[in-house]
Amino acid sequence: MKIIAKDREGKETAIEGRDGWTIMEMLRDGGLPITAECGGACACATCHVYIEDGWYEKLTPPSEAEVDMLDMALAVQPNSRLSCQLTCSEDLDGIKVTLAPE
Amino acid sequence: MDQPSEVQTPIETDVAIIGAGPAGLFSVFELGLLDLKAHLVDILDRPGGQCTELYPEKPIYDIPALPIVTGQELTERLMEQIKPFSPTFHFGEMANALERLSDGRWKLSTDAGTQIIARVIVIAAGGGSFMPKRPPVPGIETYEGTSVHYAVRKMETFRCKNVLIAGGGDSALDWTLNLAPIAKSLTLVHHRDGFRAAQHSVNQMRELVEQRKINFHVASVKALHGEGGKLSGVTLSGHDKSEWHLEADALLPFFGLTMKLGPIADFGINLHENLIPVDTTRFESETPGIFAIGDIITYPGKLKLILSGFHEAALMAQAAFHICRPNEKLRFQYTTSSSSLQKKLGVS
What is the ipTM of this complex? Predict the structure, then answer.
């Protein structure tokens, strides 16, 4: 699967996603400047992304823990998610995400 | 930012450690076995660093011999392990200046006026200092300290002010409740009509809204208006992209903490992409006498794991000994067999 990731300057990159890994891990390994300081424990809200082009509705809805942790994120929008809580799968091939400002 | 409080009499010790996370704490143990005394400085108000600040309840599975341990438990165990060496902690202080003295020792100063004179500095600062998250609103930094505050030091500052609080956690809710009676007006903004705060605080806040004592908007702060660091109003924006103006003299954003390298960047140590390059035999930076361990360092093959920080602490201590005790011979001993080590640990 592919993840289409846009950085904070608007540059788009296609990143290969590995089934079962999180989108945060793929963004990090793909060299995008994502902080993810808690390492994927849904504990810091620094892997915040916006889900673009109708992909938001296709995702499994956020858990209560993720909704709570999004309260600590900056510039939250209705299409905000924490990328450490999104698992790569073929269903998400082509998903578009934009890094939220820090 | 705040001015340092008055400078105190310098403390003299062997080693000053910046950061009281797992790597900093275990350093006390390794240094202690070699009879080296340590003082630790941490911006947080308790030990543990990321382990207690970010994920106190999350289980960690890759600490050798502890199949499962939470960040909180790991910190408590390390504190127990280093107790025999009675380290001194300077919590809630940010290490903000480092100076080399003429006798070769270092003077580390904190924003609270503490001065520590030591032969060796150990930087175990992880991802840097935990600092409040700054909302991405253009020009916000020009209002910080005057109209934008990330903490409440004196409630009186907000008396008869038009106060705007942003956020939806306990700090946002607690300060909404505490400042409502003394502010001229108080508005809470949050991106949703739901909160991760204690339910009774949320209930109290909703009551105040119903009684029209405070306002609540589902919105975010889009722009700040004012002059010379003095805020006069803000533009709020809703999810439907609608925008409206609100009078405000003070903005209090509460979005938790994030790690920033902070003053360490100005210590004159060579950095590579905000990390400290070290040699892997001594874990010393390119500045002799300044050591660095844990997540803040880089070397070929570096892994950001707690267990790596422990190994790095052990090697650092051996090298630090030679700087602190240049005329003494270092004899390597095991805690299992050495009666002198066992005596230090208080077990024999």
Answer: 0.88
